[in-house]
Amino acid sequence: MKSFPALPYLSGNFAPLLAECDAGDIVIEGEIPRDLQGALYRTGPNPMFPPLGNSHHWFLGEGMVHGFFIEDSRVRYRNRWVQTHQYQEQRKAGRRLYNSAFSFDPGDPSVEGKQRNVANTNIVPHAGKLYALDEGSSPVLMDPATLETIGPSTFDGRYTGPMTAHPKIDARTGEMFFFGYMAAGPGTPDISFTVVGRDGKVVRSEMFKAPYASMVHDFAITDQHIIFPIFPATIDLGRIMKGGPLIAWDPEQPSLIGIMPRAGTTSEIRWFKGPPAYVYHPMNSFTEGNTVTLDLCVYPRVPLFPNADGSRAPSNLADAPARLERWTFDLAANTDQFKREPLDDLATEFPRIDDRWTGLKHRHGYTGAILGEKLPGSPFDTIVHFDLGKNARETWTPGPGDFVMEPIFAPKAASKAEADGYLLTVVFRGNENRSDLVVLDAQNVKAGPIATAKLPVRVPFGFHGNWNPLNGVAHQHE
Ligand SMILES: [Fe+2]
Question: Model confidence over 106-140: pLDDT tens digits?
């Protein structure tokens, strides 16, 4: 194939890793704790072929999953492309068929009318299955032990629409909650809402109409409520037909936060209204009495997308970072307004918690942040631990030329207390063009690595990952 053009999201550690490999025993500095046993999965865009033209969007590269299998203080690594229909068709053709720019043009005439599926955004274990997800298509099942692609999931035919890459799992009930936007077709404001039981089977699925069609990346749950945040990165078919952008920043629209009783239906969603903003990722949400609290990383404007008229963002906003805020909703008050307060002034994203606290009042949160120079593509150089109980934070910065990815919490085996465990992140060593898996103490992040597993390869900057504590996953594919 031809070489990749020198575009920002195809260069440096955004460039794809064009090999699938297995590393049986990784060199480890320090010692991997004995009570850390399981698999860390991470995923991100890893475009398999150069773009069709000279335009490529970071979000549209084909997904590659990276697995770190940890057992008895040893680490094995394996990476595999998610073999979606898009992957298979392009591999057969030996070139890119699907457009990797956000455009009305699907790409090669042979894929006209076919749905794109990059499965590059998250990799989520639930009920013994492993779901590779992008928000525009059905989930793709992968083998949790081998990372081989099994195929598309329709939940036994019960749900065949798009699925967010950010389902929420209630650790107490084992249920998985998810939504899908544009669920009635391209450009529609229809959103599906589905609950999957701890046995992996769909319990309920329904549809509702959002106030307007937009890119809805993530949502939140509490033990009593489901929260659907709608932000004005709009999808307007009229605009598209006139040659305008598919997804665009449209500050004429407000931010709208829908709150639904978890025991109720989508007809009971109550909408709260705020000024235009954009949020890719909430940290967590919880209900106390009549109050719903939502912690989230808020951008003043959607990054990476143009204005509704097709023009670029003003330079002071194009790269404006997200900051952690707390939004509070009073369900007893007769108002559609809510309280908004900053929690910190750091440029920060990829918020995570101890997932056992999903929907419950959390004290600890973890993010990636930029403390040093802001570089093209905005890679994060620092891991942050927020102790919201003490209103304090601690950070760990690996060093000059090094960058971190989303921090993922892994509890100590048999531990019950919040944040009693480890924080896992993949660090790009810029000076060595190689990556490390780093294990931090989740309650003492600033002390630096407990252990560092030194990969022989580079893991491109990606999106999300999850810890799978299942016994036996670690050693099934010798
Ligand atoms: Fe995301």
Answer: 999 999 999 999 999 999 999 999 999 999 999 99
Q: What separation in Å is there between the alpha carbon of 465 and the centre of ligand 1?
A: 10
Q: Measuring CA to CA, which residue among 108, 113, 139, 112 is closest to residue 126?
A: 139
> For residue 83, how far is its CA from the centre of ligand 1 (angstroms)?
21
162 C-alpha to center of ligand 1: Å?
A: 15
* Domains: count for the chain: 1
CA of 123 to the centre of ligand 1 (A): 11
350 Cα to the center of ligand 1, angstroms: 7
Task: Tell me how far the alpha carbon of residue 462 lies from the centroid of ligand 1, in angstroms.
Answer: 10
Q: Which residue range forms the structural domain that includes residue 112?
A: 8-347
Please compute Rg for the chain using Cα positions.
21
Domain-embedded: residue 302: yes
How remote is the CA of residue 155 from the centroid of ligand 1, in Å?
22
What are 45-75's pLDDT values in tens digits? Answer: 999 999 998 899 999 999 999 999 999 999 9
Q: Tell me, yes or no, whether 333 lies in a domain.
A: yes
